Amino acid sequence: MPDSVMQNSFHLDAVPIRLERCGKTFAGGARALEPLDLTIRGGETIVFLGPSGCGKTTTLRIIAGLESPDPGGRVLFGEEDVTALPIERRNVGMVFQSYALFPNMTVAENVAYGLKVRKIARADRGRRVEEMLDLMHLGEFAGRRIDQLSGGQRQRVALARALVVRPRVLLLDEPLTALDAKLRDSLRLEIDRLLRGLGITAVYVTHDQGEAMALGDRIVVMAKGRVAQVGTPREIYYQPADGFVADFIGTMNRLGGMARGGTLSIGSATLPWSGPEGAVELLVRPEDLALAGEADGHLGGTVAAAVFLGDRTRLVVEPADGPALTVDAAGRSELGRGDRVWLRVDPARVLAVP
Amino acid sequence: MRDLSHRRGWGFWLQLGFTLLVCALLTVPMAMSMLAGLTANYFVGLKSGLTLRWVDEVLRVYSGTILLSLQIAFACLACTLVLGVPAAYALARRPGRIARLVEELLMMPVAIPGLATALALIVTYGGVGDLRGSWLFILIGHVLFTLPFMVRAVLAVMGSIDLTTLEEGAASLGAGFLRRFATVVLPNCRSGILAGSLMVLTLSVGEFNLTWLLHTPLTKTLPVGLADSYASLRIEIGSAYTLVFFLMIVPSLILMQGLSRRGRPSV
Ligand SMILES: Nc1ncnc2c1ncn2[C@@H]1O[C@H](COP(=O)(O)OP(=O)(O)OP(=O)(O)O)[C@@H](O)[C@H]1O
Ligand SMILES: [Mg+2]
Questions:
Q1: How far is the alpha carbon of B67 from chain A, nearest alpha carbon, in Å?
Q2: How does the average pLDDT of chain A come out, rounded?
Q3: What is the pLDDT of residues A128-141, one digit of tens each?
Q4: What is the number of domains present in chain B?
Q5: Which domain holds residue B65?
Q6: To test the ligand 1 pocket, which listed residue (A22, A33, A57, A206) has its Cβ within 8 A of the most ligand atoms?
């Protein structure tokens, strides 16, 4: 797909977005969003990630112009203040979770809608619709009605319809949630290539951390109407700002330790240490805990559960004291419930919360 | 398999018989009446022979009422479309207690007997200019009576589709309110609008209660003329009148049915 994007020289202007003190209180008095400041760079794909009800959709709708921020909030596209503009005058492309395709029109008519609104001449319109349908592999469905399409095809029509008008910004609200897992994976790849090929500024809302990691240049993790952390997928994964982010993204183990005078004692082992002193809570990813022998292990425990995942076996290990730990072993590992194991901790890969 | 169909056959014939009986109860009197309109002399019976004489007479003498009925029905349809569709839209887009209350209020004229509504109209507007003698007075009554049916029919369809999201989709593509309304809202509510129109047309053409009180000798509609002729003329003329009434209403019914079927998405 990137090739065809290049061939069509279909490249969009990348406009940065700035949210200034954008909060949202709904009519009933419910505070959906605390005042929020955020800058989205031109051409960047940013993903809003968070549990249900944390305000992702609300933020997206404020950017789109479907909701207005509480007084004092401003939305800027580049240098232009668009706060007062309704969605139809912001020139954004939007893909809704339910797609919101028009059932009274064919696929081609759906895609042509935005061009008609913009009074693009018929010939030009036809060419652009055709080009976009080809780009999204929808050529053969041009004459179909929406209710004659599969979920994945509808999703692509929604994308095509939003992109064909060459919007300044593309906004997607959980566009893959309604699809089954397999289709989700392949469409996620397609969207990723498309966004990169187009170079458009895109805001993508999801509660699926896998999707967020795969698509986002940066991720905004949200919780209860606030931004918990903004960072690249790596930063979010390896340097979570707090316990919430750590637990929300991937699996995180918690270990109790005591740091004193440049050493850290975990269980029976003492390791060199340069972090904060005193009693610390250590956050460790499963892949950063390694299985070891009794001689070089730091921490002993018993396997409480072993789940074979194909490429790896996920073990739940119960140490002598403290909460259970999740560890990844090789797929072919024969370890099972009740086996005694030893774990090694790499102090360089441990995150300390004092 | 054969056993099953055998057993089903039992119930089937019973049901069919019952359905046919009900149909007969409904249609036989109508058919008899219409046949009477074609008989030369009703008291002698079919022996006297069939004739178009009565129908001809009705068309000659009463064509005025027929035309007025049609005129009122289509004017009424236009009014209920212009008033009812936006009203239904406003109600559908505005969830909340006030909107539900308005919905209930709109149903009120249906619950009140037509005669009472007509009296209320006469008391309130009877003295306004020469409205009392104008066909517009009947039109007002008909609009009042049929509007709730239009609103309900359109509202039912609007409630079954996610209108808000569809409109947001259109807005995101740059469409302003009027364009969204014309290209997305109306076409997707088409089946409801057609059903409502069908309802309004038939209700208006057949309306008697209200019209009987509201009419003047110069503004007689078809059902009022029908009542008059049954009361004062030969029964053959009244029956021929029924026949004409049927011939008018059935084609429009069939047309509207056909249209609303085409409006449904093909699966
Ligand atoms: N129109 C509204 N009126 C009142 N409250 C609302 C409205 N829309 C959203 N909310 C509330 O605002 C909060 C944030 O909602 P939002 O839709 O932004 O969540 P979300 O992060 O998108 O969640 P999800 O993943 O479930 O879609 C929720 O508590 C929700 O109940
Ligand atoms: Mg949401």
A1: 36
A2: 88
A3: 999 999 888 899 99
A4: 1
A5: 61-262
A6: A57
